[in-house]
Amino acid sequence: MYTLQLFSVRDAMGQDLRKALKSVAALGYQRVEFAGFFGIEPEALRDWLDESALGVFGSHMPCDTIEDDFDAVVQYHHAIGCERITINRNQLYSQEAIDAFVAQANRLRLKLLGEGIRLGFHNHHQEFETNFDGSIAYPSILERTELDLQLDVFWSRVAGHDPVAQIETFGKRLQSIHLKDGLLDGTELPFGQGEMQLPTIARKANELAIDIIAESETLNPSGLAEAKICIEYLKNLES
User: Fold this and answer.
1) Of residues 197 and 89, more confidently modeled
2) Residues near 26 by beta carbon (within 8 Å), at least 6 away in sequence
3) 53 contacts 25 by C-beta, under 8 angstroms
4) Kind of pairing, strands 181-182 and 188-189?
């Protein structure tokens, strides 16, 4: 099943979300992961998803947004048939910040589970790096929370890790990966144009039945053009 992180097509989403969903479906994607809802009412969004025959894998949202408007967030996700929220955009640059995040994430995970929604964590490279005070965020996320894991393989590799080894060792907590290409200096590129070993990573994820979410963020020349490159690349891997 082909899934697209919709941040990849944020230009098209901002112009005409309904049309963007139709275009994503026309490329061959069957599911989407949201990164913002652009002020669209949930009932309208549910209708647009249905008319494009798109399933919802999940959504990305900051922890504070969930906590600050918990009931509305839950109601919105129920209305569009979304049972997974993944935390993004974290500033875990000190032990104090890490401790506060762990407490908040653990609290929210249990509240969301009570509403039938799973909570996960999406990494960037910073969570694997040593902060000024010697702290490192990711070990605390692994050891002090029960959050589902969504591994962004590109940012993991930029931080010096082996995504294939992580896929093998994270076990059942690893629910999905963001498949992304680029250079190891952090420059993102469309699929097949960077230094990532995407075939090897995709093969391991498929072997372990880990969901693969395509993402390409450079909008070069447009989000939909990159989304097309992504799905054609994935289809070629299977041929």
Assistant:
1) 197
2) none
3) yes
4) antiparallel
